[in-house]
Specification:
alpha/beta; 7 helices; binds S-adenosylmethionine; globular; Rossmann fold
Length: 207
C-alpha cells in the first residue's frame, strides 16, 4: 500500500490493477480522457459533471486519493468518472488497448528535483511510447508544470516521438484547472504547458 506519504517512490510501488474491468467500471465505450497523476480528482470530477457523454479516467498512485475520488464520484452520481489506483510506469499498458484514449492530461507531475532522483520522473520514453500507442489518431497529450527544466524534458521526449507533434491549444481545448494549478497560480509561479497531437495511426509508423 502506498500510505499517506506526500511522494511515492515509483520504484517501490508494484501493485497492478489486474482486477479492473474497465467496461464494467465505466459504462461508456472508448475513447477515454485519461488524467495521469489525478491527485484528489477535482478536475476529473468537474469535467465529468460538465461532459456527461465523455468517459473520464483518473490514474493515481496513492490509494487514499483514488478511494476518496471514487467516493465523491458515487456521491455525485457520476457514471462517467472512475479512478484507478496504479503506478502508470508499470501498469499503463494493461489498462488500455491501442487507440482507446482521446486525451492524456498530465498536470504538475512530481518534479523529483535531485539529480539522483530524476530516474523516478513519471514521464519517460517508455511512458511516451505507451501513450502514443494508446491514443487515437488526432488524440492528444497535454502537459503542464511550473518546473521549467522538467517542462523542457517532457516536451523534448514528446516531440521526439515520430507519431506526435506540437499542436496549438487554447482554453477552449483544455478546460478547467487542478488543485496544484490553482495553488501555483496563487503563488505567482510561471506555468508552462504544451499540447502534442498524434498524427499517425499506430499501424502506419515506419520508425
Ligand atoms: C503534484 S501532484 C499533482 C496532482 C494533480 N495533477 C494536480 O495538478 O493537482 C502529482 C500526482 O501524481 C501522482 N503520481 C506520481 N507518480 C505517479 C505514478 N507513477 N503513477 C500514478 N500517479 C502518480 C502523485 O501521487 C500525485 O497525486
Amino acid at each position: 500500500m502506498a500510505g499517506r506519504r506526500k511522494h511515492v517512490n515509483p520504484f517501490h510501488f508494484r501493485a497492478h490493477p489486474e482486477g479492473i474491468d474497465l467496461p464494467a467500471a465505466l459504462p461508456f465505450p472508448p475513447p477515454y480522457e485519461v488524467h495521469i497523476g489525478a491527485g484528489k480528482g477535482d478536475l476529473v470530477l468537474e469535467l465529468a459533471r460538465e461532459n456527461p457523454g465523455t468517459p473520464f479516467i483518473g490514474l493515481e498512485i496513492r490509494d487514499f486519493l483514488t478511494d476518496g475520488a471514487n467516493r465523491q464520484a458515487a456521491a455525485l452520481n457520476l457514471k462517467n468518472a472512475v479512478f484507478i489506483n496504479c503506478n502508470v510506469n508499470i501498469s499503463l499498458d494493461r489498462l488500455f488497448a491501442p487507440e482507446q484514449v482521446r486525451r492524456f492530461d498530465i498536470r504538475f507531475p512530481d518534479p523529483w528535483f535531485k539529480k539522483r532522483h530524476h530516474k523516478r520522473r513519471m514521464v519517460n520514453s517508455r511512458l511516451v511510447e505507451e501513450m502514443a500507442r494508446q491514443l487515437i489518431p488526432g488524440g492528444d497529450i497535454f502537459i503542464m508544470t511550473d518546473v521549467e527544466p522538467l517542462f523542457h524534458e517532457m516536451a523534448a521526449l514528446l516531440s521526439s516521438h515520430p507519431s506526435l507533434e506540437l499542436a496549438p491549444w487554447n482554453a477552449g481545448i483544455i478546460a478547467g484547472d487542478t488543485h496544484w494549478q490553482r495553488h501555483k497560480s496563487r503563488t505567482g509561479a510561471e506555468i508552462h504547458h504544451a499540447l502534442f497531437r498524434k498524427t499517425v495511426p499506430s499501424d502506419q509508423r515506419t520508425a
